[in-house]
Fold this sequence. Notes:
The chain is α+β, with helices and mostly antiparallel strands and 81 residues long. 23% of the residues lie in helices and 38% in strands.
Amino acid sequence: KGILTIRLQLEEVLRRQGVERIPVSEGDALDTRIHEPIVEEQIDPKSPDAQKRVGAVVAELMGGYALKGRVIRPAKVKIGK
C-alpha cells in the first residue's frame, strides 16, 4: 500500500509539472512523432478488418509521455503487417 501511495504522489507531481501520458488505442494510425514501432504482427488477410489494421497500432507495449506538448518518450507499439 505504501509503494502505491508513493507512485500516486509521484504521478501527481509530474502531472502538475506538465507531464502527460500519450494516449494510444488499438487501431490508431501509426504516427512516428508519438509512436515507436518495435514489433510487427502478421494480420490475417481474410479477416474483415485486415485493410484497416495493416500499418495501424495493434497494441501499446510501453507508454509514451509528453512534457508540455513535446514528446519526451514515444509510445512503443506493435503494428500490423
